[in-house]
Amino acid sequence: MKIKVLGTGCAKCRKLEQIVREAVREIGVEAEIEKISDVREIAKTGVMMTPGLMIDGEVKLSGKVPNKAEINKIITASMDK
Which one of 2, 9, 10, 64 is the catalytic residue? Predict the structure, then answer.
């Protein structure tokens, strides 16, 4: 599983990355987590509001920081595909 956290480095972006890393550890899924902070690269994904989250090339959310339970649900649902 490839997870990308999209954000320029603001507090919300860092928080999302932290929650994603914790969720991946708790679930026990093997995932490559990458932080994308280049504005041009973020724009290429179609995300216009950061932070954003992509899993396996699909945008899962943008513009908010969900709680860990929501992130767990998003990751788990992505595992089933």
Answer: 10
